[in-house]
Amino acid sequence: MTKRRRILYADKIIHNVVNIFCLLMFLQLKGFYTVASNPVLLYSTGTDIRVANISKPGKVNTIIRGLVQGSAVDFLYKRNLICWSDQTDELIQCMNYNGTHSGEKMGIVSEGLITPTGIAIDWYTDKIYWTDGDTNRLEVISIDQKYRKVLFWSEVDLARAIAVVPKEGLLFWTDWGEVPKIERAGMNGDPATRKIIVKENIFWPNGITIDYNNNLIYWVDAKLMFVDVMDFNGEKRKRIIKGGLEYPYALTFFNDKLYWTDWKTWKIYTWDMSTSGPMKELIKSEPVPVDIRVYDGSRQLAPPEDHPCKVNNGGCSHLCLLAPTPPGYTCSCPTGVKLHEGSNTTCFNSPQSLLLVAQRSAISKISLDSPDFTPTTLPLKDLKRAMSIDFDPKTEYIFWSDSMAKTISRARLDGSDQSVVIHSNGVPDSIAIEPLARNIYWTDPVTDTINVARLDGSVRKVIIYEDLYEPRAIAVHPTAGWMFWSDWYEKRPKIERASLDGSGRVVLVSEKLMWPNGIALDTVNNKLYWGDARTHKIEVCNMDGTNRNELHNSDILHIFGLTLLDQHLYWSDMQRRTLDRIDKDTGLKRQAVVDQMANMMGVKAFRLGSAEVRVGHSACAAGNGGCSHLCFARPPPPPGGYVCRCPLGLELKSDKKTCAEPEAFLIYSRKNFIGLLSIEYDNTDNHAILPVRDIKEVSALAVDISGSKIYWSDSKAKTINRCSINGAHMEKIVEWMGLVEGLTIDWSGQNIYWTDSTTQRIEVARLDGSSRRTLIWQSLKKPKSITLDPKKGYMYWSELGSKTIKRAAMDGSSPTVLIDQVGKVHALAIDYDKRTLYWAALEPPTIEYAFLNGTGRRVLADDVTMPYALTLFGDRVFWGDWNTGVIQAAKKTDGSNRKSIHTTPPLDYISDLKVYHRRPQPGNQCGVDNGGCSHLCLPLPAETREDYRCACPTHYKLNKDNQTCSEPEEFLLFAQKNAVGRIMIVNGECNDAFIPVTGLKNIKAIEYDPDNKMLYWMDEDSHSIRRVPMSYSTTSAITDSTTVVSDLSRPFHMVLDVLGRALYWTCLDTDSINATSIENNSSAGVILRGKNMMPRHLAFHQTKRIVIWNDLGLSAIMVARADGTGRSELARAANATALAVDQAAGVVYWAVNKQIHAVDLDSNNKRIIWQGGWAGSLSVYAGALYLSGGERALMRVPLHRRDLPASPVPHLSRLPCTLAVTKPARSHPCYGGRLCGGAVGACGADGLCGCGLACRDCAPGHFACKAEPDPQAPVCVPNEWRCDGQADCPGGSDEAGCGCAAGLRCADGSCAESLGDCATGAYCAPPDPPLPDAFRCDSRLCLGARLLCDGRAHCADGADETPAHCDPRPTPGARSSNAFLVCGGIAGAAGGLAAAWAALRRWRRRRRAVPPPRVLVPLKHADVRARPIGASATISSDSLCRYPRPTANPPPSPATASGASAPARRRAYRHYRAMNRPPPPTPASTDAAESEPEHARAPPPSPEPEPEPDPTQCQY
């Protein structure tokens, strides 16, 4: 054979061998060719599911991605399904996989899971079995129909792995709870088949797997570090592996080999039992491998003959479950559903007996038809605090109250058709449905009422409002016509009963009662049950309160909900987080229904299809009893009695069934109620209560007929409020007042007038509370009642101090005494037709009237006890008696036809009485476009020759057009704890007035921007400085404000640079003066800080551009330029408590040692100007010094008359701060803050530009960055950040000039010629030169070869000392398959032929030196630092935050080995009940996890990497 033919022949052989080898590899890797010793492994990680062929363990394919916290995995080979559980998403899913392609994810279980740790598939019947270590249940579900059933729920602690043997109908699982064990049971869940097969020599049983050919069980213990084998009875136990294990988790078996995952090493190992080892490493996984299976059809062989469930599902309507006992299967129902009586195959379609549980943010239902009592959460939306729940048996809707949303809602039992039925003005607590009359009742502990409405929410009525303090539970007896409720008011707890319309009220239980919560009724035996959360008892009595007995008192901590069904009484315990039941007659046979269920509140048990609606009889059940609105059954006698009632605004006509809208009705107030009284129809039930919340004590009423609103003053809240005529839409319109006892409405001008007997004033405002103005503030002596004659322009009021009735124009001008010696008049009313004035007086008690000019005075009635409230309508006068509570009426001309229109219940302590009617009212010129006035239009009497005049809010100035108003520019601003006001010395104006800014709390300091009309305040609670618009109308410090500076640490004082548009402030913890721009909140920094400095109070002279402060550290009054330069001492002063500057005179004032000192700005003329007490605030305004502090009143000290004493300002005390507001010098060059680049503090006196914040030096230990890119905002960084390889300055100047003359700079800052000379390594990140041969710890630090494996960790994660880099021994490989032996032999032969071929051709090759392979280390996240800021380092809470440097030598964990590709931290397990032994080692940590802090529980292992370190929280 020629040389050429030999070469061609050899080439052909090699070509064929390669083709055969590639074909075999392709077939095996794709699953078409598998041999016994080379299975395909299917395993899960935290983020995905992978497959690997053992013949090529380095080749791993990811087939399913996107897991959040992957856990268990299994497969259904005949249907090409891969199924898995996800513990974070709390679901079980499946996906089609044919060996090359994955399909779409299919949801199998998505509810009722917490930590599904193990799954096993029954390939006979296509069902998934799983364990859940948190729900403590074993469950099963059919893959196709999704029929789901709980198999075992008792004595299941922390079930982990699970395995099924369909041919035997057996189920095995491991449990590593307090009593670790391995159990066996039938796959049908029959408790008789359940058996513990291992309970000794076991600690943390993890993985379990089955040898189906030999009926053997293999399992692993992660604590004792062994693998054992035994038969199905737990016998013939034998140790397979007893050493070399680290943390074995999941286990699988295939053809005499075991495969398992290890959480400590992050590897998959194998053990060949035919050779008794050794243990071999197959796969190094990242992230950690979790569960494992051998994906092979031989693991799921079909039965030789049909199994019992194959044909027609075994005849079962739902679930056919295999069983170990004849006939080999059981028909079962889904969880909560039971079989039809007399049938073993057919189930109901849904549960028949149910228990509903309100859980604040969720509502669950529990079937009482099955013994597992598995709760199911209803798919409801927007639940905030569900408190109580009930069920309507007629429509099968559930109803619940939400105390936070203030609603009552309904939905169907499956959660569909959800809607809000009632929007409450108060807070609905407990609810009760009356199914016969189709009404719903609820208690309201805020308004202290019991309310009723139609089930659709259409008609509402308050039925009980008296003597309620803390109403809680409520229950109704429809056929008996009774309702029962509990009141847990601590001073007088009680349980009461009344008729369903609220009448016939009687106290049943009031002794030995503390916190009665739940109430339940036995309507068959007429028994009343209740639970007491304070005495920890459940008691029972007859429905008349007799025969009281204690039913149960064992292990009850805080009972809340109570319900009854059949023979059982159920209750929820908020503290024990349990739901239990007992026998209702004996109190025995206690059984836990649900354990450890969070936030359980109200409960309701019922039966579907119940005859409850048809039991007994109610006249309201048919056609609503003929009532047009509300029908209430009445208790006998007479039998079948009922009454009709009307909602608010309607009255019952004479037919006693029809409700109609009256022409007029009375509105009264007493205590904390506002009610309505009928005056048209003669009814015994002629009153109703407005459902208005948060009323403390009503002192006066007014009615706006055109707006259909009621106004009232609250003497305790110091407010004026309003609401709609039905009690809805309550709002505060005026705050900060004294005792308002008179209210009246100018219906034409849309203004409200009131008297204030505390401040001795009469005031007016628009109906929305804006444009508040004081009309009369002098010569008043306890003004009480007030009324208006808008058509004539007069107002009338009574004075208790002078015992007169006075009159003035409606603008407050020309006040005069109209009638004297009238006694103490508490009520006034005008008869506009007869032009007469009526009044009710005490001392002596009379009702009188006179003409509006004061003449013709007559007595209408003098045989009255204590007439306190009075009103007129038509030809009658109505009045209420303070003592008797009787409302009477009489003819207004002579007092005849006198009669009582309301006696029961008595309305004693009535404070006011008004009439609401629809009759037209006379108007005036202000009724048309407010008379053209921008604010207030006030009618005037005819003799003034003007119909009206325009007026402004207090301190506002009426412009020359006599219609519009302008704001004041110079005034004294003051603050109380939660309010701000203004003092202004102007002729014809009241000096002080409150500013309508609501929502303020704990004001520490105030400032005012006259340009933008903004109020600034330092909020002590939120540690911030905020601002809000300030005007004549109400603004909210909550909704209308913005934050200027946040996260202050103990803020102390502030001052505003109006011209330079900057804000300066001090804090107790920083000992510096800080500043920020108020235009854009930028360029913030430290203005002043130095050794021994402790700046506190601040003042700022606007035109001289200087900041003044008292310094506790220097014991001086100090002064500096606006940018902080030119600091000098103005005067010695230790412990000054207040500071102020007179802008006009250039004088500085401060308070110290109960004295007020002063000094000129040139340090001359230091003097004491006042002494007499402590002062916490000083301000100079209108030639006087105002001082306040502590409990004292605001004091005024004249500055130009030293001989005049200090005088208190009336009605103002407890002022933490005051501020003198002056007109800004708009001609000053610094005005507007735009000069000098707009930098904070840069504009000095006369407009000279300084350096602003750039003047500041960095604090000691800090490096000053070059002034770029913003020269006005210097940046300081710690010195240790200098030359550390990472640019921290905006321009990188901290890394400039860091190079060494020769070589490179090491990580410790020293210089070296090469990397090997660096004892700590060097930074390998730019701008340093590249280090190609270095070992990279991370993206920044590089090490030389001499630092590797030197016994000391130099990398933060210890990567330079890991065995992968330090151990030269090769990792033992896996056994080769037969196919690979053949292929290997062929490949060897081919190699020999190739060598011969090369020899024949005699190719000469130059040998190239191959460099050693570079060690690759996964890059970790870079060391992240917060962006440095200006020299102050005090502007933002995160401005100086930086991530901590990595801890050296961390403990070994998957986190340190995973690098950047590690998944997000896996969700931690919940705590376990008192377990004193340590938890197992985990790839994450053993820290306690997210909930149940009351139990000291150890978390089960969870393969989650360590979390990234949290940034350090920084404060000022």
Describe the structure.
The chain has 1516 residues and is mainly beta. Helix content is 4%, strand content 40%. It has four helices and 115 strands. Strands 3-2-1-24 form a four-stranded antiparallel β-sheet, with no helix packed on it. β53 and β54 form a beta hairpin. The longest helix has 27 residues. The protein starts with a helix and ends in a 58-residue tail after the last helix. The C terminus is likely disordered.
Task: Summarize the SSE layout with pairings.
Layout: H1 3-29, E1 40-45, E2 49-53, E3 60-64, E4 70-76, E5 81-86, E6 91-97, E7 102-109, E8 116-122, E9 127-132, E10 137-142, E11 148-152, E12 159-165, E13 170-175, E14 181-186, E15 195-198, E16 205-211, E17 216-221, E18 226-231, E19 238-241, E20 248-254, E21 257-262, E22 267-272, E23 280-284, E24 289-294, E25 319-322, E26 329-332, E27 353-358, E28 363-367, E29 375-377, E30 386-392, E31 397-402, E32 407-412, E33 419-423, E34 431-434, E35 439-444, E36 449-454, E37 460-464, E38 471-477, E39 482-487, E40 494-499, E41 506-509, E42 516-522, E43 527-532, E44 537-542, E45 549-552, E46 559-565, E47 568-573, E48 578-583, E49 591-595, E50 603-607, E51 630-633, E52 642-645, E53 651-652, E54 659-660, E55 664-670, E56 673-678, E57 687-689, E58 698-704, E59 709-714, E60 719-724, E61 731-735, E62 740-746, E63 751-756, E64 761-766, E65 773-776, E66 783-789, E67 794-799, E68 804-809, E69 816-820, E70 824-831, E71 836-842, E72 846-851, E73 858-861, E74 867-873, E75 876-881, E76 887-891, E77 899-902, E78 910-917, E79 936-939, ...
